[in-house]
Amino acid sequence: MQVLLGNSAAKEAYRDADGKVCHRPIEGRRVTRVVIPDSYTLMEKVRTVIDQDGVWNHHSRGDNVRDSSPDWVEADDEMVAQIIAQELGCRVGRPKTWKADA
User: Fold this and answer.
1) pLDDT computed for residue 38 by the predictor
2) Are 80 and 42 in contact (CB under 8 A)?
3) Which residues contact 19 (CB under 8 A, 6 or more apart)?
């Protein structure tokens, strides 16, 4: 299954000269795409996105999953989208006016 997150606060990982993993902000809007095995339970699918060590926290600015919210969420599974939207404080469905920069 697939989850898409509108991301206006994207970050990317890189390694510094000492090999330490660091993050830097990416300007503009992005769509964060998460591919989750269909064999996962409903809550495993949700946790893959929203846990502290989940995809959203690794792709959005801040050190905590709640430091920034997605602009919107879409998912192949409507229940997964609803739970993620409720937990992260965003809407379900991409607004027609929302355009990604990349």
Assistant:
1) 94
2) yes
3) none
When divided into structural domains, the chain yields a total of: 1
In a domain, 67, yes or no: yes
Q: Is 101 within the bounds of a domain?
A: no
Query: From first to last of its 102 residues, what are the pLDDT tens digits of the chain?
Result: 999 999 998 998 889 999 998 888 999 999 999 999 999 999 999 999 999 889 998 888 877 767 789 999 999 999 999 999 999 999 999 999 888 775
| Residue 99 included in any domain | no
Domain that holds residue 33: 2-92
Which DSSP string do the residues of the chain spell out, in sequence order?
-EEEEEESSBEEEEE-TTS-EEEEE--S-EEEEEE--TTS-HHHHHHHHHSTTSHHHHHBSSSSTTSS--SEEEESSHHHHHHHHHHHT-EES--TT-----
Residue with tokens 């027609």: 96
Q: Label the pairing between strands 91-92 and 72-75.
A: parallel
